[in-house]
Amino acid sequence: MKKSEEIKKSIADILELPQDIILDLPKITMVGNLQIYVENHKGILEYSTTRVRIYTKNGVLRIIGKNLILKNIVVEEIVIVGEITHIEFMD
Length: 91
What we know:
Layout lengths: L2 H13 L3 H4 L4 E5 L3 E5 L3 E5 L3 E6 L2 E15 L3 E14 L1
């Protein structure tokens, strides 16, 4: 972690601020295995009905499943629905 990121993390801890906002980290919320919300993304790298790859500050988030659909895409948020079977971060 860079020194500036360490300082931001320390400030977030001291002031009890959300680290995802201060450090520009992705925030991922799942509803069962049927829906996933990804906030603070940097763009979509790949999309098919079985795989979605999303670029984030932490690397690439890969979502594997069946019948995946991009339900909503805005500047900071993506909503994916379908049968999600696997999620992982890749460098």
